[in-house]
Amino acid sequence: MRGGWPLPAAVCASAIIVAMFLPWMLVVALGALGWLVLRVRTDLLRAEDETLDLLRRLRSARSDDERAEQLRRVLDAAGTPIIATDADGVITAASRSASRTLGGGRRLIGVRFDELFTQPELHEMERLARAGEPGRARLKMPVEGELRTLVVSADSLDRGSGCVVTLRDVTELVKASELKADFAANASHELRTPIASIRGAAETIQGPARNDPAMLERLTGMISSNAARLEALVNDLLDLSRLESGETPPSLSEVDLREVFEHQREQFEPTCKRKDLRVEFDIDPVVSRIRTDPVLLDLILRNLVENATKFAREGTPVVLAARPESIPPDPVNPPPAGADLPMGVRITVRDEGIGIPIAHQQRIFERFYQVDRARTGGSVQRGTGLGLAIVKHATRRLGGTVGVDSVYQQGTTMIVELPRCADRPAPHHGVSRPHEDGDGSR
């Protein structure tokens, strides 16, 4: 028995007392004392063993806690919703991503799996996984107020003790795949149309129109027009491909905006003369010189001015303006290396044309998207449908953004904002000087 030392202690003490009258009881007292020492030593050894066992258990518990904490950190670092359930379908572990995106930030441990999700397919997958049948599926689910495409994996744990469900968001991959398919289909259609026209004209020239000078002139003009369209489409495709690949970083240098605007005016002078358009400048002196990539800037303005001159009404101005702005850089799409000046620039291209219906304004930057009603009637020539997509990607390469402000049948203003490309205004002059070069010369 534990604590067996009181009995020998009592015997030893009694023997000592009796030995005062009977000396031979000292022998009994010495024997009881030896018995007492033996029992105390035994109890001490047993207590030491129990202490060591307790320490081992504490170390084991601490190790289990550390492993559990390490597992929790691994789950949280995964960045993917991961949920573990027990044999009854109750959640026993969940990653931080699962709590944030699926549970609205609340604690999920202890919640039943079928209470967290409303999709019957997901309930069935989890139930079958607990029964030993792992599964995979692609589902569309509302996540943080947006319908997302998720690849769901449900895997069994050992001995039917539960399962692990992983949800991987593939929405962007699906969109990219759809965009790739749409791009191939649209590019094929856009290429097929002028090729068919050229082939038809060539066959007609070789046949019925061989000896008809008027028809020959008309058909050769058709071939030339469609060949130019093919060339424009190929050039736009090459520009877009270079921008999307991102292989060549922007090359920044000092750019004179007045010279850039003047170059655009000269480039579209034939169109302006034909439609009696006035290309006007409105450059704030603070941003008359900026640090940017001149090639990308020319690509942006060329496409914007082309659209403005194409859809502007005859006898109206097309205004190119530049203003200094405090534009914070986007951490997701930062400015290129070397763009470290304190101010940005806001460039606008405004026309008084047919405008863009509000229902189409969010889609005009998609590749090959064109507003049908904006192309109808008059002498408006159909474009490649890639101009604004090129503008969007070129602007992003410079860390900027592009937007539109348009009122249907009244006009359109395209807005490009580029951060970190201009100095602060000097103290001796104002922030802006409006309508510079407002003479309307063409």
Main traits of this protein?
4 domains, 442 residues, 20% strand, Helix Hairpins, five-stranded antiparallel β-sheet, five-stranded mixed β-sheet, 12 strands
Written description of the protein model:
This protein has 442 residues and is of the alpha+beta class. It folds into four domains: 69 residues; 91 residues, PAS domain (Beta-Lactamase, 2-Layer Sandwich), CATH 3.30.450.20; 76 residues, Helix Hairpins; 194 residues, Heat Shock Protein 90, CATH 3.30.565. It has twelve helices and twelve strands. Helix 1 runs antiparallel to helix 2 and helix 6 runs antiparallel to helix 7. The longest helix has 54 residues. It starts with 5 loop residues before the first helix and ends in a 20-residue tail after the last strand. The C terminus is likely disordered.
Radius of gyration: 41 Å
Tell me, what's the shape?
Answer: elongated
Can you identify the CATH superfamily of the largest domain? Answer: Histidine kinase-like ATPase, C-terminal domain
In spatial order, strands of the major sheet run: 2-1-5-4-3
Q: What's the CATH architecture of the largest domain?
A: 2-Layer Sandwich
Q: pLDDT under 50 segments (min length 5)? A: 373-380, 429-442
Helix content: 40-55%
Q: For the residues shown, what is the average pLDDT? A: 82
> For the terminal residues, how far apart are their CA atoms?
113 Å
Strand content: 15-25%
Main beta-sheet annotation: 5 strands, antiparallel
Number of helices: 12
CATH topology of the largest domain: Heat Shock Protein 90
In total, the number of domains comes to: 4
- The arrangement of helices and strands along the chain is HHEEHHHEEEHHEHHEEHEEHHEE
Find the structural class using helix and strand composition.
alpha+beta
CATH class category name of the largest domain = Alpha Beta
How many E-type strands?
A: 12
